[in-house]
């Protein structure tokens, strides 16, 4: 496309080359293990664009082209889940004897992988406060190879000063990875802020319909060869069927995300006025302690945030949740339907102080008035 275009124009066209496929608007879903070569010489030299199903197809390439454009990355790998999009790059860039720094508000299974598996492989793991910024310098060791970031953090939505963390980490020779699932590249572009490896659970907003598990990892030019080799060595690839569904989801991600953003902000602001609510944890609200950082770095906020009840515990959270009829009780987010879960912060390394139970909401595409009425029923159940 000529010249800079708006995000929805780009999402509508990125990755598509209709005239490579007889004019059909969308790329074909190429299901493949074997790819044939015309002769023995070409096979031996692997001298053609496609060589084997694990190495990509026209369908996965269409998605990769779109994602590289959105991320500003040199290359992107696809893996079978968002969690694999975390574990594969960590395996790519860490070896026995290395030190890994992870933000304490990280997605729980990332912590579990680091503590259970990386530690077994001889990687030293430490956690740091999301608000550390340039103070990360004090946590870096001569053997620190990776600083893992996630902003906002899972469940409690603290922001990180990614530019500051990346500048200090790079000076010490470490690379920076970021789980950017919350913002998507539409609202935050990690590589523009010094991140080397951008990670997405495409299960969430890109797929958008709660029916696909998919991960994407995008790298800058320096990190791309090692990331790609690791995927090849591990054999973690995806099917073209799933890649097609994610590409299909991307086409509408911009308009869906704007709706998630507006509805979530409206409900978050309303929750702040409810007598049973102590705090709302949403970086897009002016009351969020890091709202200035949010305004500096993010082009928008997505549809997931938490709120804290004034007092009570697991029993009160259950009373509230069991009264909901539109919000489903279930994990994941980014789909068209609203969800609620009680938040468990027991695995955090740093002390947590909240007045009551923390409840996380994923705001779907339903009508805000109906969602508000559902939450009101939850508050009524609390008495
Ligand atoms: C921030 C974040 N990263 C990664 C993942 C993992 O994605 P998946 O469910 O596709 O494994 C999740 C899932 O909830 C998540 O919230």
From TrEMBL:
Keyword Lyase: yes
Keyword Lyase: yes
Positions of post-translational N6-(pyridoxal phosphate)lysine modification: 204
Pfam families listed in its UniProt record: Cys_Met_Meta_PP
InterPro entries named among the record's database cross-references: Cys/Met-Metab_PyrdxlP-dep_enz, Cys_b_lyase_bac, PyrdxlP-dep_Trfase, PyrdxlP-dep_Trfase_major, PyrdxlP-dep_Trfase_small
Domain of life (superkingdom): Bacteria
Record Gene3D superfamilies: Aspartate Aminotransferase, domain 1, Type I PLP-dependent aspartate aminotransferase-like (Major domain)
Reaction catalysis annotation: L,L-cystathionine + H2O = L-homocysteine + pyruvate + NH4(+)
Alphabetized GO MF terms: cysteine-S-conjugate beta-lyase activity; pyridoxal phosphate binding
Required co-factors: pyridoxal 5'-phosphate
Keyword tags: Lyase, Pyridoxal phosphate
GO BP: any one term: transsulfuration
CDD domains per UniProt: CGS_like
Family (UniProt): Belongs to the trans-sulfuration enzymes family.
NCBIfam families: cysta_beta_ly_B, PRK05967.1
Name listed for the protein in its UniProt record: Cystathionine beta-lyase
Organism (species): Prosthecodimorpha hirschii
